[in-house]
């Protein structure tokens, strides 16, 4: 939370836009790591953590990537490039005009639909 609180207000606002959902596992993680129950956290902290938990990819929240929807047959792949310190998007199939850009939220394309 200290890193979030050091950001300028406009950056904080843009990071609070996406939907956040914290499942029971995330809430238990907070309790284990912070030593407080989910309900004891300030509302802003719960919201920031829920957005992080719902939108993190490999430990990063990508500013543009977390705004993309999931597809089991995505048209984009994206990953963090540590050399450039930026998120990188790569088209992996033809994209029709007006088609929504999508990514696969989980790693591993060798999983069945049921496993995903």
UniProtKB/TrEMBL annotation:
Gene3D superfamilies: SET domain
Pfam families with a match to the protein in the record: SET
Ranges for domain SET: 67-105
Domain of life: Eukaryota
Keywords, ordered alphabetically: Membrane, Transmembrane, Transmembrane helix
InterPro entries, A to Z: SET_dom, SET_dom_sf
Keyword Membrane in annotation: yes
Protein name: SET domain-containing protein
Segments crossing the lipid bilayer: 48-66
Organism: Penicillium concentricum
Signal peptide stretch: none
